[in-house]
């Protein structure tokens, strides 16, 4: 029976190779669309328009990416990348700051209407901006925040996921730590800076990864409020690069832009894989 | 260094009263152990002294001044927690110096004080480590160090040894007592372990259900327990308590006739410590032995009295008792008989 | 031990708190302010607007009570959109979860190299739905798409621009693609958390791999599965706008117009604010229900 038990922990011989084969096939299938996009971003337009397009990269890498970054279609992709970066970082940092503060208030204080505020904040937990787009758009338009970074950022900060995460985390911190700090003479904000914030470092970093991707990948909201191409974000800008009517799309540049749109979030995910997975699992459960 | 006075301290959570009026005057430099079972309110009492719980009623004076409404930091106390509550992201030195840093002491002075205490506690090697790199005993020491470095008027200990293994506990118990004596700082120490209470305390408070059952020196409590609870909580194995009735100048326990030194009349509770029983062929107590536990220096005999009450005797040396149903006669000297009121459960005489 | 003799506090509360009320109010103010301005006010507006019909010039509007809702629920297009959404989200959820579970089970058998596969598989999660839409559109583009071309070689005339079923299939696959990564991570983590001793006990009892999987492992995974079910439905409902907008724009013949897309197209393209607002309110209710469902789950997790 011992063979059977180890066999189930890790298959040996033929079974092992079969499992690897399945995994590799899975990875290839999952990867195929990205690979194809990459290939398309390195060949010429005629090579694509004459199907089937090649399956291995061509020699137009520098040309296509330069064309995209410097001139793009409506606006240089470099500009859109910058906008996306501002938006993603703005959302991540903004949300982390207000969430840390409000979670601290909710967990470590008893104050009037605390429960009311608690529920008000938590009502926003899952409601995506998509559901309230028209009135939110009107609010932003009313403030004159169309085509502005603040218009891109603020409505997406109004959600309680991060507050919830920090609240959960603060609740796991032993009470004795706050008591020890009180005995040591720390007043609330001192405790926040000296104890709570340093202890939350990992959570903050993990949340940053999640929120950065969330912000970077926004589509509908920037589509609505950035009518000026120079304020477009890259994710929504790709669709704007398709010509209306029957004109043929400039596929190599579009695909180069798609690859460029993926690189920052993919880099973040891969380089901070551990933090990212932890953040993901924490923020969702 | 200071006296601590508790004057009829009460604590209510909503309508439930968890501390029902505790008073004690703790002398300067005294080591007080608050002992009792889970849920007796001993930690709550300590936390009220610390300022971590509000005092519902009564007055607390530290060093002669009213402290009810002072913040913990203004009470000039230091506390050692059960789980040590070390700041996980700070080094040992930073942990110890944090209170001083908040007070705004110059860095050099903090470093000097931390260094001094670290030497006292043999922590010098560990000053740059983080808490998670320390063993349980070392963490315990750091928690002590953090308390000492602030030179408080009063030490508060909340079950500081209960997370350590048995051997370390014995060692740390001695260390804490020695340190406290050396520094001469008044200490309040909470534990559920009666051995800790007996060995460490100058005086102890035996608590049960929010009431101080008895306040006294360990020997006091052992020799003259003020209540049935104190009698049974202190001492191991715990005191035998049987129902008895005083009449005709003797004490009747079932069919057994014992002397009646207290001249008790009517029904009383009689307490006999297992270790005070001696084998005596003419003794008045008949024990039907069911189980013998030889411990080497002494032997525990568990069994029943003729009326079926469970009863334990602890006899010096080795006693070979066969399996089941052996009868043994025991006697006890009158000064080792404890009498308690049947309804108030307080000591008589 | 010591913990037992402390008064019982509600589990979700701290035993000790700091005093004062001004500081916490200041701390919570930014979030409350932002939520009020960008969340509660617009949500309130949506409810309010759903009770009015604006005149054709947008100069005034008339209170109509629940007429917008009545109209919506009687509108065959809206009902069709409901059914479309149901089909779409069911398909996306299945297409995203089943392959993920399968891959996770496979990866779980590979003790040493599982991490490598995980790194390779999490990529697509980072790809925005809108970008995913573009990638899949490119593969299936009727003029240049490689896959469409090969299908043509095989004699199958792929045209998602005209064929409703093909359009639906394409947006489902493009939406599910990135989610496979996400679900894989959760399933994999859950599988790793299954105690070896339970599996070994089952192995000693003589259960073979797949039998063990269905009788022991899958039931143990049920909390994760339930959680992913809710999360994937929410995703399919609300976060797939980018995919649909880039690939089909809701067509052909509204075959891929899910509810969120309809809010957008009626509100911004059709400028029918009353109807769009009423649709938002209905979606609000749907989200509310899903949130309650998820929150129950969250609280349960927290409580053990």
Brief characterization of the structure:
The complex is a heterotrimer of chains A (285), B (349) and C (304). By secondary structure, chain B is of the alpha+beta class.
DSSP helix count of chain B?
A: 8
User: What's the Cα radius of gyration of chain A?
Assistant: 24 Å
Q: Secondary-structure element order of chain A, as H and E?
A: HHHHHHHHHHHHHHHH
Q: Helical stretch count of chain A?
A: 16
Assembly context of the chains: heterotrimer
Give your account of this protein's structure:
The complex is a heterotrimer of chains A (285), B (349) and C (304). Chain A is built from 16 helices and no strands. Chain A has helices spanning 2-9, 13-40, 45-49, 61-71, 77-108, 114-123, 133-142, 149-157, 161-172, 175-183, 188-199, 201-216, 220-225, 234-240, 251-271, 273-284. In chain A, helix 5 (77-108) crosses helix 9 (161-172), helix 5 packs across helix 12 and helix 12 packs across helix 16. Mean pLDDT of chain A is 85; it is low at 1-10. Chain B is an alpha+beta fold. Chain B has a 6-stranded mixed β-sheet, with helices on both faces. In chain B, strand 9 (203-208) and strand 10 (211-216) form a beta hairpin. Chain B is elongated. The model of chain B has no long low-confidence stretch (mean pLDDT 91). By secondary structure, chain C is mainly alpha-helical. In chain C, 71% of the residues lie in helices and 2% in strands. Chain C is built from 13 helices and 2 strands, in the order αββαααααααααααα. Residues 1-11 of chain C have low confidence and may be disordered. The longest helix of chain C has 34 residues, at 76-109. Chain C starts with 21 loop residues before the first helix and ends with a helix. Chain C has a two-stranded antiparallel sheet with strand order 1-2. In chain C, strand 1 (52-54) and strand 2 (61-63) form a beta hairpin. Chains in contact: A-B, A-C, B-C. The interface between B and C is medium-sized, with 18 and 7 residues.
């Amino acid at each position: 029976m011992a063979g059977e038990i180890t066999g189930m922990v890790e298959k040996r011989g033929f079974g092992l190779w079969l499992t690897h084969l399945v995994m590799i096939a899975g990875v290839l299938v999952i990867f195929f669309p990205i690979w194809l996009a990459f290939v398309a971003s390195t060949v010429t337009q005629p090579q694509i328009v004459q199907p089937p397009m090649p399956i291995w990269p061509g020699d137009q890498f520098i040309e296509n990416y330069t064309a995209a970054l410097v001139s793009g279609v409506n606006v240089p992709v470099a500009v859109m990348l910058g906008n996306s970066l501002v938006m993603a970082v703005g959302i991540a940092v903004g949300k982390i700051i207000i969430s840390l503060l409000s979670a601290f208030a909710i967990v470590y204080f008893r104050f009037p209407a605390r429960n009311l505020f608690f529920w008000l904040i938590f009502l926003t937990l899952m409601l995506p901006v998509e559901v309230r787009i028209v009135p939110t758009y009107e609010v932003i338009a009313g403030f004159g925040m169309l085509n502005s970074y603040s218009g891109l950022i603020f409505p997406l900060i109004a959600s309680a996921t991060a507050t919830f995460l920090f609240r959960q985390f603060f609740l796991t911190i032993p009470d004795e730590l706050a008591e020890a700090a009180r005995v040591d003479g720390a007043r609330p904000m001192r405790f926040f800076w000296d104890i709570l914030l340093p202890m939350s470092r990992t959570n903050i970093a993990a949340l940053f990864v999640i929120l950065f991707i969330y912000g970077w990948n926004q589509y509908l909201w920037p589509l609505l409020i950035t009518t000026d191409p120079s304020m477009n974000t890259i994710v929504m800008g790709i669709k704007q690069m398709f010509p209306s009517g029957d004109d043929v799309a400039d596929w190599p540049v579009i695909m180069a832009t798609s690859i460029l749109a993926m690189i920052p979030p993919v880099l973040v995910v891969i380089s901070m894989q551990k933090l990212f997975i932890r953040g993901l699992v924490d923020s969702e459960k | 260094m200071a006296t601590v006075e508790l004057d009829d301290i009460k604590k209510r959570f909503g309508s439930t009263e968890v501390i029902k009026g505790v008073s004690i005057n703790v002398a300067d430099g005294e080591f007080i152990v608050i002992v009792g079972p889970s849920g007796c309110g001993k930690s709550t009492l300590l936390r009220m002294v610390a300022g971590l719980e509000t005092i519902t009623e009564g007055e607390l004076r530290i060093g002669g001044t009213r402290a009810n409404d002072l913040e913990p930091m203004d009470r000039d106390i230091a506390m050692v927690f059960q789980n040590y509550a070390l700041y996980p992201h700070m080094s040992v030195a930073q942990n110890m110096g944090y209170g001083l840093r908040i007070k705004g002491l110059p860095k050099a002075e903090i470093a000097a004080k931390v260094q001094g205490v670290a030497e006292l506690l043999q922590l010098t090697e560990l000053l740059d480590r983080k808490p998670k790199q320390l063993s349980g005993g070392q963490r315990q020491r750091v928690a002590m160090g953090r308390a000492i470095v602030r030179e408080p008027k009063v030490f508060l200990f909340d079950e500081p040894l209960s997370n350590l293994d048995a051997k370390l506990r014995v060692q740390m118990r001695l260390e804490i007592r020695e340190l406290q004596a050396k520094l001469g700082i008044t200490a309040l120490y909470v534990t559920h372990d009666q051995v800790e209470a007996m060995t460490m305390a100058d005086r102890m408070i035996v608590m049960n259900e929010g009431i101080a059952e008895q306040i006294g020196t360990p020997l006091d409590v052992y020799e003259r327990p003020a209540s049935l609870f104190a009698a049974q909580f202190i001492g191991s194995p715990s005191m035998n308590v049987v129902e008895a009735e005083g009449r005709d100048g003797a004490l009747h326990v079932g069919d057994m006739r014992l002397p009646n030194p207290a001249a008790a009349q009517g029904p009383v509770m009689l307490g006999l410590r297992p270790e005070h029983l001696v084998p005596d062929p003419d003794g008045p107590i008949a024990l039907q032995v069911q189980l013998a536990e030889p411990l080497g220096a002494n032997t525990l005999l568990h069994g029943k009295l003729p009326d079926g009450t469970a009863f334990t005797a602890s006899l010096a040396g080795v006693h070979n008792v066969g399996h089941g149903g052996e009868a043994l006669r025991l006697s006890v000297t009158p000064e080792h008989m404890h009498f308690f009121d049947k309804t108030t459960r307080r000591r008589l005489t | 031990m010591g913990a037992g003799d402390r008064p019982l506090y509600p589990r979700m509360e701290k035993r000790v708190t700091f005093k004062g009320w001004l500081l916490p109010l200041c701390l919570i103010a930014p979030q409350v302010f932002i939520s009020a301005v960008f969340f509660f006010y617009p949500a309130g507006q949506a409810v309010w607007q759903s009770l009015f019909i604006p005149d054709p010039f947008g100069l005034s509007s008339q209170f109509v009570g629940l007429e917008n809702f009545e109209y919506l629920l009687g509108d065959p297009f809206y009902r069709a959109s409901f059914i479309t959404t149901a089909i779409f989200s069911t398909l996306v959820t299945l297409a995203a979860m089943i392959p993920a579970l399968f891959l996770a089970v496979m990866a779980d058998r590979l003790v040493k190299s599982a991490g490598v596969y995980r790194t390779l598989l999490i990529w697509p999660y980072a790809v925005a739905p809108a970008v995913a839409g573009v990638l899949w559109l490119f593969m299936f583009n009727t003029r240049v798409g490689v896959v469409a071309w090969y299908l043509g070689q095989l004699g199958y005339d792929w045209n998602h621009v005209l064929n409703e079923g093909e359009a639906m299939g394409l947006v489902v696959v493009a939406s599910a693609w990135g989610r496979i990564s996400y679900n894989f991570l959760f399933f994999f983590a859950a599988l790793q958390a299954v105690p070896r001793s339970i599996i070994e006990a089952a192995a000693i009892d003589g259960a073979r791999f797949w039998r063990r999987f269905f009788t022991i492992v899958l039931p143990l995974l049920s909390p994760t599965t339930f959680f992913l079910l809710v999360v994937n439905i929410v995703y399919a409902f609300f976060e797939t706008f980018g995919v649909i907008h880039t690939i089909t724009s809701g067509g052909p013949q509204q075959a891929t117009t899910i509810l969120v897309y309809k809010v957008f197209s009626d509100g911004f393209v059709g400028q029918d604010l009353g109807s769009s607002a009423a649709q938002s309110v209905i979606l609000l209710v749907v989200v509310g229900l899903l949130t309650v469902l998820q929150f129950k789950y969250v609280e349960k997790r927290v409580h053990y």
